[in-house]
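Subject: design request, 289 residues
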């Protein structure tokens, strides 16, 4: 009997995060991006969101000359209040008690404080914060959000991306620049001109990784993006998303469905149906009587 392949729906857009996700593990990419399997909230991810928002507020609300440490910590407190006021399901899902909440906020303040050891924000001329960019690369819609876009004295641009996780080892540092190099390519494609530099600011380890978007780097970035898109399309057509076991597996919430851990990917379908039913129940409950 011939094997019948079910073609999966191709994502509508590509982004730096999707490229990283698929490259790290095609199967986890499918569960997250295509199947939309529910994932438990991540303390690290939510803390990253909080710190990013605090630094956005620092540059948004305070002019040059007033971006002090106290202003940054005040911005973090405001970001934290915003998060709480949103009745954020992720925050509630963490289930933090009073002590854990204090530790969570304390570490966020530590990260914000370490930012000042990497650069002086009063020296920065910002032209974009949480900047949405979208371009068409050979028929592929590529979208993303740039943490910060700076303008230097000569009018050239710099793409800046904050990282709240650990910095990579020196031999891996170049490979981490793929996302910001793609942002540089997108800036150029949007007509802003090619940025003079791209920078990753690793707050926890107080490390800056920077590079110049050369012609060679831009060609390689374009080829990599289109190559990943082609691989995603092939995997969708053949329903062939394979696991890629690595050190990242210990952070993965899909182990129950992963063959590398004795799981069965087909069982994920039941979870999807259950999540859809639960969502419909919530929607129906929200309807007026």
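Subject: RE: design request

Done. Sequence follows.
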């Amino acid at each position: 009997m011939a094997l019948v392949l079910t073609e999966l729906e191709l994502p509508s857009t590509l982004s730096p995060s999707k490229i990283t996700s698929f490259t790290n593990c095609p199967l986890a990419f499918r569960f997250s991006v295509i199947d939309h399997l529910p994932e438990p909230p991540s303390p690290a991810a939510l803390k990253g969101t909080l710190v990013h928002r605090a630094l956005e507020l620092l540059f948004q609300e305070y002019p040059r000359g007033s971006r002090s440490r106290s202003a940054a910590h005040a911005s973090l407190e405001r970001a934290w209040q915003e998060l709480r006021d949103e009745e954020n399901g992720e925050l509630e899902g963490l289930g933090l008690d009073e002590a854990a909440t204090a530790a969570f906020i304390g570490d966020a303040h530590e990260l914000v404080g370490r930012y000042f050891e990497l650069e002086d924000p009063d020296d920065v001329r910002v032209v974009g914060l949480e900047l949405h960019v979208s371009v068409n690369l050979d028929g592929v819609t590529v979208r993303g959000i740039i943490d910060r876009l700076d303008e230097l004295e000569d009018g050239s641009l710099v793409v800046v991306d904050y990282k709240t996780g650990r910095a990579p080892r020196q031999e891996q540092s170049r490979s981490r620049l793929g996302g910001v190099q793609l942002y540089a390519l997108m800036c150029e494609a949007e007509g802003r001109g090619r940025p003079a530099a791209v920078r990753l600011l690793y707050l926890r380890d107080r490390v800056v990784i920077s590079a110049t978007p050369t012609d060679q780097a831009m060609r390689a970035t374009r080829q990599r993006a289109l190559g990943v898109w082609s691989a995603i399309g092939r995997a969708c057509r053949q329903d062939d998303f394979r696991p890629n076991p690595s050190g990242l597996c210990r952070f993965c919430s899909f182990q129950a469905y992963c063959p590398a851990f004795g799981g069965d990917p087909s069982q994920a379908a039941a979870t999807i149906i259950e999540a859809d039913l639960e969502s419909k129940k919530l929607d129906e409950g929200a309807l007026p009587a």
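Residues 10 and 233 are 6 Å apart (CA to CA).
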